[in-house]
């Protein structure tokens, strides 16, 4: 059995604001240490349950957060930036399942550090389905026939996962109080929960179906201001929906839609306040 693990940071135990997830802030080194430990709990449990190969993709910011020297020695780590498929780099049909660790709720929703790729994106849609990072990544997994069998993060990420993926196992390591406050388990208790939930997820994986993406999906991203929409619209093939800050792109498949989203959000980040 081969398992794919995508590890983000905002949904990690005890991390509640930008000081924990920004490499220039004082809490970051603590945050990445807890993130690495959290990944290890999942990895170790996966090997104990019979997985022969576990590939981990560092999926936060510049994607070089996980401390490779601290990871389980049998792990393979995908690390660094730029990756053509970002948070799901390396995922393909050779995997039996995918696990998302440290995930958060989508933009404009309640949840600890909720957002969708950048803070300038208010909503993302595939056809008429509103999705965030979790949903988009699950669609890419589904393209390859790979089910997302477990999602770990705060309670709002868990609720989002359960609404998208029937029978998915969720591991709630903290409960959202506000976007920058939570009631959190300790790392030790969270580790015990993650080990238990990973075991449950692997035993339950046959009951989870891949989240199959639509053919020829329409990607729509609603930005917070018009300047971001103008930048995103510089990508060929896009158009701004009249009277809105929504930029649309008709993709040939979900992989193209995913890469279009990456380009559009990267362009949008060039917008200045004034």
Automatic annotation (TrEMBL):
GO molecular function annotation: aminopeptidase activity; metal ion binding
| InterPro entries per UniProt | DppA_N (IPR027476), Peptidase_M55 (IPR007035), Peptidase_M55_sf (IPR036177)
Spell out the Gene3D superfamilies in the cross-references.
Answer: Dipeptide transport protein
Quote the Pfam families the UniProt record gives: Peptidase_M55 (PF04951)
Q: Which domain of life is it from?
A: Bacteria
* Residues engaged in binding Zn(2+) 1: 8, 10
Q: Which UniProt keywords apply?
A: Aminopeptidase, Hydrolase, Metal-binding, Protease, Zinc
Catalytic residues in the record: 115 (nucleophile)
By what name is this protein known?
Aminopeptidase
What organism is recorded for this protein? Answer: Falsibacillus albus
């Amino acid at each position: 059995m081969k398992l794919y693990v995508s590890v983000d940071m905002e949904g990690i135990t005890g991390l509640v604001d930008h000081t924990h997830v920004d490499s220039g802030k004082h809490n970051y080194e603590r945050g990445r240490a807890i993130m690495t430990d959290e990944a290890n709990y999942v990895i170790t449990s996966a090997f104990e349950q019979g997985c022969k190969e576990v590939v981990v993709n560092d999926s936060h910011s510049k994607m070089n957060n996980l401390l490779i020297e601290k990871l389980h020695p049998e792990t393979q780590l995908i690390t660094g930036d730029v990756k053509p498929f970002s948070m799901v780099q390396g995922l393909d049909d050779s995997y039996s399942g995918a696990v998302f660790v440290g995930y958060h709720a989508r933009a404009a929703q309640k949840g600890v550090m909720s957002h969708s790729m950048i803070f300038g994106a208010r909503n993302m849609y595939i056809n008429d389905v509103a999705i965030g990072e979790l949903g988009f990544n699950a669609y890419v997994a589904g393209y390859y026939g790979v089910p997302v069998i477990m999602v770990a993060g705060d309670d709002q990420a868990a609720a989002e996962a359960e609404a998208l993926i029937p029978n998915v196992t969720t591991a709630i390591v903290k409960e959202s109080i506000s976007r920058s406050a939570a009631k959190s388990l300790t790392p030790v208790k969270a580790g015990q929960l993650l080990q238990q939930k990973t075991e449950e997820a692997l035993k339950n994986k046959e009951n989870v179906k891949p989240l199959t993406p639509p053919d020829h999906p329409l990607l729509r991203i609603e930005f917070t201001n018009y300047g971001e929409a103008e930048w995103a619209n510089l990508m060929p093939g896009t158009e701004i929906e009249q009277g809105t800050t929504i930029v649309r792109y008709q993709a040939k498949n979900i992989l193209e839609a995913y890469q279009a989203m990456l380009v559009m959000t990267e362009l949008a980040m060039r917008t200045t306040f004034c």
